[in-house]
Amino acid sequence: MYFYGTQSVNELGHLTIGGVDTIDLAHMYGTPLNVYDVALFRERAAAFKETFKNVGVRAQVAYASKAFSSIAIYEVAEQQGLSLDVVSGGELFTAVSAGFPRERIHFHGNNKSFSELQYAFDEKIGCIVIDNFSEITMVKDIAETRKEKMNVLIRVTPGVEAHTHDYITTGQEDSKFGFDLKNGQTDEAFLQLHDHPYLELLGMHCHIGSQIFESDAFCFAAEVLMKKMVAWRDDHDFVCTVLNLGGGFGIRYTEEDEPLHPSAYVEEMAKVVLSMTRSHNYPVPEIWVEPGRSLVGDAGTTLYTAGSTKEVPDVRKYIAVDGGMSDNIRPALYGAKYTAATANRIEEPHVDKVTLAGKCCESGDKLIEEAFLADPTEGDIIAVFCTGAYGYSMASNYNRLPKPAIVFCENGEHQLVVRRETYEDVVRLDIPLQSVKREETV
Ligand SMILES: Cc1ncc(COP(=O)(O)O)c(C=O)c1O
Ligand SMILES: N[C@@H](CCCC[NH3+])C(=O)O
Questions:
Q1: For residue range 195-218, what is the model confidence (pLDDT) as tens digits?
Q2: Which of these, 89, 140, 170, 379, has the minimum number of CB atoms within 10 Å of its CB?
Q3: What is the CATH superfamily name and number for domain 8-31+300-387+390-420?
Q4: 111 CA → ligand 2 middle, Å
């Protein structure tokens, strides 16, 4: 059994997280339940920050909160001295609701609306990462009308094809994100922004994709952007003070995954930046990174209750749980792989091969095609590991399933941080038919 972070086993043979018995949690809060190991999040955050300190560069580590956005996780991020990457008015509102320091909020997105951008100005956030030409027009318009300053970065697609699922690569030229580096769009964006009276161009941003293991791809992206920064200095006498290299650091979902320690990726990138600054006599920029998955992914575990089983003779045994693609779309969307365990008998041999199915009305709603569990039977609590990133944040009410509750565990204590949706929540936006007149039919 592979344990993440503070996971362990207690005297009852139950899985514990943050020193709390997961079976107690399942009984107290119900299932499906997302449980976060807060100490692991803190450890990861500290490791990123420590790495930059050791390498000797100024840095901001921004939590890419699309991975899991809630007021409580923003509060923990704040406590850890992280910055915050938000990608919508809704995430910004969550940050504001958490009282997150505005100057450490960075706003991303390939189609920010005028009102979202105005909201960013209202809140005087730290930086807008500009993605396209219409955004330049809008941001200039807002800044000039209000006569207000705003820091901006230019998002660039550096032409790096990282090895990951097609849906989560973003650094290649044919991407909906950012300005292309090779065809001149990035330079054009630079010319439109670099001497604006209200917009403070800090530098460049790139993010090559998600769940990437090879550090070469990150280092290559750093090199490509540094070269462009040097060219702007040489041609326009403009020095970038910030280089944002995004997130995307891969984590271990199953034993097939062999990531480096998350902070090792940033160490290598920082070294590339330092060596380029030395060889081009360039002032060392502040490096920003945006880890999402590598901060919260393995800190999250989902607890389900096992329900019906079905044997397809000589083919497989299905065991269904009380959630599925509604709380974790990743297996259905990306073919993502996970591991699981029978949390109430965690020490027994996990040798029974089953397909862990969800309860949604879709044949593709399988959480794990080949799960090895300890003789799973109805009523068992099944823990699916590593669900902390892009699980709850991509959850839906498909089949009108209420979204799960979320509990934080740390030092033997637990706290509900997102309550479970009720059936009333599920219909809260519905408006019953009232005034539509029907033609009388005879
Ligand atoms: C711009 C940007 N930054 C950071 C991230 C975080 O990525 P990850 O969760 O893989 O670290 C993403 C998502 O892929 C992103 O689009
Ligand atoms: N949602 C994706 C990652 C996309 C990251 C956002 N750019 C996943 O679950 O792996």
A1: 999 999 999 999 999 999 989 999
A2: 379
A3: Lyase, Ornithine Decarboxylase; Chain A, domain 1 (2.40.37.10)
A4: 17
